């Protein structure tokens, strides 16, 4: 096991900068990206309280290391829905990645494959399902928005299944678009040289569409019956993304969900909902091990991953860290972010006396307010 720190050197155009952690990519991305694009990726809904809380909440969870444990070999491998991956860190669906880098989702797919982890492709991606599949082997999920015309969803799911994707991530917390005031001020629009590539084929909309039209087509009547309907059109496991309560976690399982993703949509939808890490434990308890519980939101450190695992998550997803590193250094940036988080998790496990993921138990953490 190597615990030497990873240092990334990037050329910002004016000078070379050393990057020693995931957070530093955002500052460089902010300088590099057009304001409209940076704000689209970075901002949250309304007052952005939840956006800040997604990060701040992790600081209220403290580690309780055990000493004199043999950690000469630290094993981070795990299995999600039967798919073995190298670490419990996966890539969340993030739309329109070509705004960050010309290779967009293709670069992200290659980086995830090299890291031997799962990438989730967004419905509103700027590379198509088939283009991402063409990058080579890899374990990939497809994130689905359900449109008013169910034929669109059905065709997207069938294309993902045909292209070798391994799961459908159904986003359920977006019946309407949240109010992101930065996007309103910037009059956000997809740059004219880009399109939503999954809609260039005749998928019931009729040719290439812009993001404003796609948003208007999302169906606000989506309900639990649609989770069951999806199971009739695909054999792929369906993960429900956007769960924040124990009640909804139980309903998801009752309606056939193969997995649950605890998510507040990166704080982009409804402000003043809790940070995901704060509701994770109650959802894990409600699920009682029947399906895997995964979590996203505010994860920037290996210690964050460790805390999520200690609270019962089977794995975590990262989103903004991916697009910011993609903007700074393309595929190499995404590779480095995945390696940084992997190395930090390895270090945290070793220093906490946890040679394997099963050793990361609830007693290895404590909420600061209860000390």
In short:
The chain has 371 residues and is an alpha/beta fold. The chain is built from 13 helices and 14 strands.
Q: What do these coordinates show?
A:
- This protein has 371 residues and is an alpha/beta fold.
- It is 38% helix and 15% strand.
- The chain contains 13 helices and 14 strands.
- The strands form 4 sheets. The protein has an 8-stranded parallel β-sheet with strand order 6-13-12-11-10-9-8-7.
- Strand 10 (238-243), helix 10 and strand 11 (259-262) form a beta-alpha-beta unit.
- Helix 4 (104-114) packs parallel to helix 13.
- The two termini are 33 Å apart.
- Mean pLDDT is 93; it is low at 202-210.
Record the SSE blueprint.
Elements: E1 8-11, E2 16-19, H1 23-32, H2 35-42, H3 49-56, E3 61-63, E4 78-80, E5 83-85, E6 89-91, H4 104-114, E7 119-121, H5 129-133, E8 140-144, H6 150-162, E9 167-171, H7 181-186, H8 211-217, H9 224-233, E10 238-243, H10 246-254, E11 259-262, H11 276-287, E12 293-296, H12 302-310, E13 315-318, H13 320-351, E14 365-367
Helix pairs in contact: 1-13, 4-13, 10-11, 12-13
